[in-house]
Amino acid sequence: MRVASYGCRVVAVCPRGHMLRHVTSISAFYSYSRLDSIGALEAALKDAKPDIVIPCDDRVVWQLHEIHARNPSLRPLIEFSLGAVSAFEIVNGRERLLELAKSLSIRIPETRRVASEDDVAAWFGNTASSSAVLKLDGSWGGEGVEIVHSEQEGIEAFRRLAQTHGVGTALKRSLVNRDPLAFWSWRRQSTPVITIQQFIAGRPANAMLACWRGELLGMLGVEVLSSQGATGAANIVSFIDHAEIANAAQLLTRQLGLTGFYGLDFMLETATGSAWLIEMNPRCTQLGHLARPDQMDLAGLLCMKLTDRAITSSQAPIEEKTVAFFPQAIDWNPRSHFLRSGYHDVPWDESQLVRELLQKPWPERQWLARLYHHFRAPKKVTVIEFETVESVGKVNGQPLNS
pTM of the prediction? Predict the structure, then answer.
């Protein structure tokens, strides 16, 4: 929406019922094929002939890398959109990215690959902390990340993450969740790569970057005030300016030769306020349309570079420090005191989209999903609020570890 507001023609590749279909500023749509999602994406790129591709899903980035490897005619477009080919493998693997960050003197938690339960036990035997974070490479959206508080919890988490999913899981995700990439994700499964990471006591922070051939055009940083579970998406955030986060963004953009939008995830340590880099999201995140009084939104910064002309911001800057994302903040935490102040990020110019967002997500409204959840209740996730430094690690006043 923000890119279209700067005069760019925007087309989208998405499922037929997706919320993007309700955005009037998108001029054309291409649909995914459930059985051949990567083929549908490749066909859309050939037909639409875009100047740049902006992925909004981790798996789409991986599909673009695969298309780059197999289709020479699309390589220039993909490299123009994502940046240096040498960075592809690094941004796809948590361990490789953190190794690079460490070489650049960016603060990172100790991280180690674990291939067995014995490796997990050895980690806890060699560290004074009883807490750790296990992560599965190739996961997205907070899935494949588990915070554990004992050796036994760590071993149990390792067993879950090490399991490969069968065709039945792919079928369920395709038919019930309406995930167009479910079968592609199932077919590309390989030996799970799992890492264990030092647990940093603190509050999450995110940064979204707009990059151009290794140059950082702009960055927006926030700390998370409320999130969907300990590893889920943020629904209320507060703008921050943090020197360590800005430095990490500059160094990684330059070293990796990045182009387009990227996200960085950090933990702000409670005791010191230091920023610990924990991973990168090689795609557009939910901050790119927000403008502060001292900086244009990131979408506008990239559009200026693409068009090589001056652009006036298409929206008034956000004066408030706190931002509540619509509709997640209201859906997940309607009684939060953060909702009584700050900026509510509602797309008022797209009334059809607002009406769509006020309903249940479109996959959950389908008869098959309703039938499935009638017999099997969806997994519940606790909302976490990080109100102050003193209350970090508490949910509704109770410690997370209880």
Answer: 0.90
